[in-house]
Amino acid sequence: MSGSVSQLPASAISATSSExxxxxxxxxxxxxxxxxxxxxxxxVDYGEVxxxxxxxxxxxxxxxxxxxxxxxxxxxQARLLGRxxxxxxxxxxxxxxxxLFRFHEWLTGSEFLDLHGRLYGxxxxxxxxxxxxxxxxxxxxAYAHKKIGTxxxxxxQRIGLAQALxxxxxxxxxxxxxxxxxxxxxxxxxxxxxxxxxxxVTIFLNSHLLSEVELSSDRVAIIDHGRVAATGRVDDLxxxxxxxxxxxxxxxxxxxxxxxxxxxxxxxxxxxxxxVTTRAAGEEAIAAVVDLFARHNVRVYGVMxxxxxxxxxxxxxxxxxREAGR
Length: 326
Hints:
alpha/beta, 14 strands, Rossmann fold, 11 helices, 2 domains, Alpha-Beta Plaits, about 35% helix
């Protein structure tokens, strides 16, 4: 995508409401005897990019379909943009790119976007202005008058993103929005998401590409077996349970009990430098260890935390239940 994100018109967002953009309370969906979503409770603020993660069969797509009104919840409550599910005023302000999209192959890109603009009730003059903007944004201007049936998979995903933004939405649901894109295309999608977030638009992002979620999202929720297994800011989740090596001059034996209160000591290797390998609950614990060493005149030559990824966090959360055969 070569179009500048500055070509995306501002959305005139007013995020002064005390309610979150998305609020779910005990949302549940049962298909016959199969529980697909169980007690899903979370909230997403205006202007957030929120990553929604989980293994296959965890209930992600069913959850999104409930929010989009494609599947009715068995029980629980949900509000979007301060309104109940299915509210027409709210739906006009929501954009959606499904994972398994099948677009009208006989329509050109411009015709397809015009159709969706009409479905949203956009006036003709607004559609004429908006369509070229979103086509430029997703780098499909040269293909505006070609039929979607001639588009590649990646181009179809881009025209899908364009239709999700055609109505200048306040809330956008993106289900695997970059799966068919190359690295440059993914980078441009991240730029679009950043621009939308800056305008106060809320993005609900479901993707198996955890590196993309890590780069794009403010907060994430990991669900497993239909329930939230972990949630929090991305930076906070990455900082939990860090493996950290401290390279020091020497470690007095009398410091071990106090050190053990701050971190979990896994190994001590004595040599020209003593290397203490630990597990720390977070960055504050690392700082506390450095302060401890300083108070007792222990020379610190290096502090090397292991770089964690969102994939590491995901595996730590999901793997135990998978190994237990649940």
